[in-house]
Amino acid sequence: MTDLRSENEELRRKTAELMLEVNSLREYGIENESYKQMLQLKDTSTLSLVTSKIIAKSFSPAQGTITLDKGSNDGIMVGMPVINGNGLIGIVHSVSSAFSIVRTLRNVHLKLIIRNERSRSEGILKWTGEYLTVTNLPKTADVKHGDRIVTSDISSVINKPLFVGRVAKIINPESGYFNDLIISPGVDFNSIKSVFVVKTTQFPLNTLPQTNERGEQ
Questions:
Q1: Does residue 38 sit in the same domain as residue 78?
Q2: What is the structure's pLDDT at 206?
Q3: What's the confidence (pLDDT) of residue 132?
Q4: Is 205 among the domain residues?
Q5: CA–CA dist 25, 15 (Å, integer)
Q6: pLDDT in tens, 32-52
Q7: Residue 73 and residue 211 in contact, taking contact as beta carbons nearer than 8 Å
Q8: Per-residue pLDDT tens over the stretch 131-185
Q9: Could you tell me if 126 and 136 are in contact, meaning their C-beta atoms sit under 8 angstroms apart?
Q10: Quick check: 205 pLDDT over 70?
């Protein structure tokens, strides 16, 4: 009986070790694929990019932020877009010498002017605390389910639009002159670990006046 217990204990130990090894291999595969996408983006992009790791995340329902391991010593400035191979993640909100805090698209205090890549119609992108939406889109605007949504390059020094996501739902109220859209973001915010900061010399992205946690500009 003692030998059987010992064998069972050894079997459970080896099973646990195998599980940890498999998980490590899966994680390595995921990170390897992620870095491949990022390297491909860096190789093909004409933008100046700074690679950064995420050292902290805060994804409260209303105020999603990430903290990066790069700051002003690396040329990072407030207002610079943060991206990965799947699209726009957010905008740098505050910077110290060695760190940066980014307001992600899942932050109610971040609002961006975006456009429909296909029809060129424009609207305001914002996070409601539950959904990523485009508001104030005229009912006459040409929009279809699955359309790609990108950042507007009006008044922007970025020489190409940044992918935000796709139209997941069109909300067409009976009254009024505007539709709202629900956008499915290109970025999986739960899995991001490394990002790129897009370096520019001027305020880079066409944003609306931002508010702080008290609703002040």
A1: no
A2: 54
A3: 97
A4: no
A5: 15
A6: 566 656 666 655 455 677 888
A7: no
A8: 999 987 888 889 999 999 988 876 454 556 788 999 999 988 778 888 899 999 9
A9: no
A10: no
CA dist 114 → 66, 92, 144, 206, 207 (Å): 22, 18, 15, 8, 9
CB atoms within 10 A of CB 90: 23
Helical (H) or strand (E) element with 8: helix 2-44
Buried b / exposed e over 154-175, threshold 16 CB at 10 Å, is eebebeebbbbbbbeeeeeeee
Tokens read off for 94: 């505050």
On the CB side of 136, how many CA atoms lie within 13 Å of its CA? 10
| CA dist., res. 168 & res. 109, Å (int) | 22
Residue 33 shares a structural domain with residue 85: no
Tokens of 123: 């609207």
Tokens (6 digits) for 32: 């390897």
Euclidean distance between CA atoms 180 and 199, whole angstroms: 32
Express each pLDDT in 3-39 by its tens digit: 665 665 455 334 434 433 443 444 345 455 666 566 6
Domain ranges, residue 126: 111-185
3-state SS assignment for residue 142: coil
Please, what is the average pLDDT of the chain? 77
Say yes or no: 127 and 161 in one domain.
Answer: yes
Could you tell me if 131 and 150 lie in one domain? Answer: yes
Confidence (pLDDT) at 16: 33
Burial class (CB in 10 A: 0-12, 13-18, 19+), 72: middle
Structure tokens at 50: 């700074």
Indicate whether 53 and 25 sit together in one domain.
Answer: no
Report CA-CA distances (Å) from 47 to 67, 179, 200. Answer: 22, 33, 9
